[in-house]
């Protein structure tokens, strides 16, 4: 699995997609905070969404928005990184050397790691711009790990179903439906168990489809 | 006793209503270069995919190095190098990085990886590409890079789907040299190709497939024998027309003012007698040379004969 991760890392560093996936959500958050602050009456530090709320409350609202973008970018990372290999069936050369499950697992692990890194970059950006961290940061971090796993496995599954670029929309829809449940503190804890099981299942199906796609 | 690297027996493969392979049986001897010939759509790629464990046959069996393709695919994959007809390379990586990744993928011990990469580069003469990113490569360079990757884990069998397609004459010569070198090192090479002249030069054995059925499997001499090939001859004089001898056994294919071409088996004694006879008649004979039919002609003949038999049967 390390070899596939090494390949993905090297490739995404070279084509600069890694920088976009990791820093993209943070940049979106920074841009939206910047716009909201100006709209609220002028560019003044710390940035905020609403002047009526405390810095921590502002940070919490922005952290929720960050989670959405992190999932979107994570889905694209899972879909995009190995898309050329799936389209051209070059993934077959990996499958000659390693079992399909190992390749699929590496694909999901890479995208999940990228997604969680994007969340960390986003939270640091929020902290820097709002001068506060959201309350219950631990809960947010846990939700981010689960969101990263979900986004990565959904993106990988959709890619193996069809590598057509429009297919990523289905992954977006899946993540968008999952997100409100994930950040809801009444429902979220149950998802901490369900999502990993779902990710394992999706990874197994991806592995099966990878082999089928290559042979076709 | 002949040891076989690949043994296929009664393979059947259907894609919906289309039967791609029917009762396909053949064997590939270890340490040989075996050519796989057939027209487009004859079932070559399907067969290669089954042999490479990428595709399951609907019926029949196939063993590669003694392992069953259906039951033990991973044991086979680690022992073969497969180069498909079309493949892409990661354009942002250098060749050395690319091969390095595959040494990791194949689980080659860390200490051996650099040496294995060097060996692969040297074998495929891609040393000059080692530090270059894999973009803007010529077709010949791409093919050599693909081969370097297929050889990285030192496989026992190399399976190549149309490796000569799109290569210029120089690159084809290089490919043939490489395949000969691999045979010298004890590797088995099973390759499909449309360039039959190249196959004739390097192959020890042939598998000929038509409409999903193998119509021949064996050495090239055996194929010629099966086709009842007779040698074509050309007899030329400098200035005089050539009269046929009284006891001529053969068929005249063509003639010119001072030459004739004919098919037939002539023993050295018969040749000597005929030349002496012509010289005695004052014919200034300058050449009596055999013109062997090419593999391409033999293949066309084989396919035609099969088609005639099918028409007769129906």
What are its keywords?
heterodimer; A: 216 residues; mainly alpha; B: 314 residues; alpha/beta; 6-stranded mixed sheet; 4-stranded antiparallel sheet; 14 strands
Description:
The complex is a heterodimer of chains A (216) and B (314). With 216 residues, chain A is an all-alpha fold. In chain A, 81% of the residues lie in helices and 0% in strands. The radius of gyration of chain A is 18 Å and the shape is elongated. Chain A starts with a helix and ends with a helix. With 314 residues, chain B is α/β, with parallel strands linked by helices. Chain B is 36% helix and 28% strand. In chain B, strands 6-7-8-3-9-10 form a six-stranded mixed beta sheet, with helices on both faces. In chain B, a hairpin with a 2-residue loop joins strand 9 and strand 10. The mean pLDDT of chain B is 85. At the A-B interface, helix 1 and helix 5 of A face helix 3 of B.
Number of strands of chain A: 0
Q: Determine the fraction of residues in helical runs of chain B and give it as a percent range.
A: 25-40%
Structural class of chain B: alpha/beta
The overall average pLDDT of chain B, rounded, is 85
Largest interface: A-B, 24 and 25 residues
H-E string of chain B: EEEHEEHEHHHEHEHEEHEEEHEH
Proportion of residues in β-strands of chain A: under 5%
- Describe the main β-sheet of chain A briefly: none
* Global Rg of chain A: 18 Å
- Calculate the terminal CA-CA distance of chain A, rounded to whole Å: 24 Å
| Inertia-based shape of chain B | globular
- What is the CA–CA distance across the termini of chain B? 41 Å
Compute the average pLDDT of chain A: 89
Short summary of the structure?
Chain A is mainly alpha-helical and 216 residues long. Helix content of chain A is 81%, strand content 0%.
